[in-house]
Amino acid sequence: MAQLSGKVALVTGASKGIGAAIAEALAAAGAAVAVNYSSSREGAEAVVARIEEAGGRAVAVGGDVGKPGEAKRLVSEAALAFGGPVTVLVNNAGVYKMAPLAEIAEEEYRRHFDTNVWGLLAASQAVAAQIDGQAGSIINISSVVARGTFPGTAVYAGTKGAVNTISGVLAKELGPQGIRVNSLSPGLVATEGTRTAGIIGSEMEQGVVATTPLGRVGQPDDIAAVAVFLASAEARWVTGQIIEASGGA
Fold first, then answer.
1. Confidence of residue 2 (pLDDT cuts 50, 70, 90)
2. Spatial distance between the Cα atoms of 84 and 93, rounded to a whole number of angstroms
3. Taking the CB of residue 28, how many other CB atoms lie within 10 A of it?
4. How is domain 8-242 classified at the CATH fold level?
5. Half-sphere exposure in the Cβ direction for 81 (13 Å, CA)
6. Contact at 8 Å (CB) between 117 and 164?
7. Active site residues
8. Minimal CB count within 10 Å: which of 38, 176, 207, 228?
9. Average pLDDT, the chain
């Protein structure tokens, strides 16, 4: 499988979980992949090692997309590392902390929107500026909570609602450049983050499984497979869409 041969991809927040699975899947499909990390260099280097062991090309690039100038630098480093423009961008980096209205702090609000929204905009802006007439794909990782209106998720869900809206806007703005933009919206996925948060193995997980037609929570590979499709020419007529990968939940 080499439908992404010759492509340079940048996956933000790719040291673990969904981002790591997407980076490995893109590499398996033939792309050269820049694996971004904010704090876990060790995790990103482990992802790179797995990709290289499987015969792929990858490099770890550190940087916090929520900070001014960092996203642009990451795109430049990825292009320099592989000798060509980034044509596949997966805006996966994100933070989440649940809190009811009375406990929402301005600091958390800014942290969420700086990373989940500004980071996406800045990275997309940098990719669009350097893509140089080639066909491209921007995949923005959202969440089903954007339309779930679950208590305690006002800030996080607000960022993901913004992600969905921005994806539609950018699809129209960047379409004339040959850049497709889609939102990939997972349901509950078993990752290091959801395990650490105590969600996996909890009554919440049981409730999700009970209302999911396919009868389980997602795995990172379930999301990665959809990302590869959206990055490939097989999705050449797909843009401005919100693709939910949730087992029907």
1. low
2. 23
3. 18
4. Rossmann fold (3.40.50)
5. 22
6. no
7. 156
8. 176
9. 96
Three-class SS of the chain: CCCCCCCEEEECCCCCHHHHHHHHHHHHCCCEEEEEECCCHHHHHHHHHHHHHCCCEEEEEECCCCCCCHHHHHHHHHHHHHCCCCCEEEECCCCCCCCCHHHCCHHHHHHHHHHHHHHHHHHHHHHHHHCCCCCEEEEEECCCHHHHCCCCCHHHHHHHHHHHHHHHHHHHHHHHHCEEEEEEEECCECCHHHHHCCCCCCHHHHHHHHCCCCCCCECHHHHHHHHHHHHCHHHCCCCCCEEEECCCC
Q: What is the pLDDT of residues 64-76, one digit of tens each?
A: 999 999 999 999 9
The residue written with tokens 């995790």 in the block is: 43
Query: Amino acid identity of 153?
Result: T
Sign of torsion, CA 240 175 124 80? positive
> Judging by DSSP bridges, how do beta strands 179-186 and 136-141 pair with one another?
parallel
Q: Which residues of 88-107 are buried (b: 16+ CB within 10 A; e: fewer)?
A: bbbbbbbbbebeeeeeeeee
Residues 6+ apart with CB under 8 A from 89: 9, 10, 75, 123, 124, 127, 136, 137, 138, 139
**Annotated domain spans of the chain:** 8-242
Residues in the chain: 249
Torsion of CA 119, 3, 44, 78, to 10 degrees: -60
In angstroms, how far is CA 190 from the centroid of its own chain? 15
Check: CB of residue 90 under 8 Å from CB of residue 139.
Answer: yes
**What was the pLDDT predicted at 61?**
98
- pLDDT on residue 101: 97
